[in-house]
Amino acid sequence: MYFPLRYEDIRAVAHNTKHFSSRRVAIRENLPGEPLLPPALPPLTSDPPAHRDERMVLTRSFTPEAALKLEPTTRSVCRDLLKRLAGKSECDVAVDYAHEIPTRVIAIMLGLPEHEGDRFRDWINDITRGFADPTTARRVRAEMTEFVTEHVASRRAAASDDLVSELLTARLNGQPLSDDHIVGTVRLLMIAGIDTTWSMVGTSLWHLATHDEDRKRLLAEPHLIPTAIEEFLRAYAPVIVGRVIDEETKVGGCPVKPGEMVMLAYGAANRDPAVFPDPDRVIIDRGENRHAAFGLGIHRCVGAHLARMELRVAVEEWLRAFPDFTLSPGSFVTWSSGVVRGPRQLPVTIRR
User: Fold this and answer.
1) How many Å apart are CA 133 and CA 145, to the nearest integer?
2) How many domains does the chain have?
3) Domain containing 181: what range?
4) Alpha helices in 211-241 (DSSP H)
5) What is the CA radius of gyration of the chain?
6) How far is the C-alpha of 69 from the C-alpha of 62, rounded, in Å?
């Protein structure tokens, strides 16, 4: 694979759908006999001209207004989790808080009980391990597909006010979405909508646990939290995606060949000193901040508004409940592997 680092080179690849395809976005080895392409996750794995219409199917559910409508639910989820931690002097922010929030929110969006989020969390953790063990990844893919297929069938029999029911009534070129399309899209939302968000919630709180001056400033100036969230996204962008090279071209002057892949590390783009002054310093009141954490080009994250809301609410509610906290002495922070980076274990001491 090729690994561009400069913002402009990454941006050029992301915008160039003629030479670079999104039909495969994960960079990992295949098992012998395993298909080169996993099942599609539309619109993430779609290319033009199909991509635009497939993305439009989702946009109504992920507008700024739709995200704000879910804010009370998200805040309720956060407060319920924090009540469980009341009175404790130590906890694992990743396991006990960050990992729970998007799994519950996505479950509610899909019209499922909140406790189904526990199943989603197990799958996401297994998918992470699946980058080292493709057999695990294959098992999880089959389990998720079976689960979503059954849920889609139940909504066909009895529609409700949820995202799956919306997909069942959606039209693509005048025709209903196929079952494979719906299952792929729901799997995408469960994977991309959970792992990236819980990683950023955990990373944001890791930063505040290790930077007292920033934590104290946000307590004194809570109106800065949305700006700080943007800076955390810039500095700790969690996502790496791949592109398949379809035609010979160049990336930053380097010739690249068809059939090979390019890795788009948006976190590298966000640390480019040609674009961001003092890029390795986290500045929670940074002004202009056109980061690439949600991607660039036509595949920019459709759930960006929802993710921003969840991040903001998660940080606001945590600081309200536990304004003074730090990493637990002698503990270890465990980070994920694979294409999404975030803390999997984050032990903290709550100071009172």
Assistant:
1) 19
2) 1
3) 35-238+303-350
4) 212-220, 225-235
5) 20
6) 10
C-alpha span between 271 and 285 (Å, rounded): 17
- Cα angle 282, 288, 293 (rounded to 5 degrees) comes to 65
Q: Given pLDDT bands bounded at 50, 70 and 90, which one contains residue 132?
A: low
pLDDT tens string 268-289: 999 999 999 999 999 999 999 9
Q: Are 234 and 267 spatial neighbours (Cβ–Cβ below 8 Å)?
A: no
**Tokens 């493709």 sit on residue:** 134
281 in a domain, yes or no? no
146-188: pLDDT as tens digits? 999 999 999 999 988 999 999 999 999 999 999 999 999 999 9
DSSP state of 61: G
CATH number at residue 154: 1.10.630.10
Could you list the beta-strand ranges (E) of the chain: 20-21, 90-92, 171-172, 175-176, 240-245, 249-251, 254-256, 261-265, 325-327, 334-335, 343-345, 347-350
- Domain assignment present for residue 181? The answer is yes
Tell me whether residue 208 is in a domain.
yes
Q: State pTM to two decimals.
A: 0.95
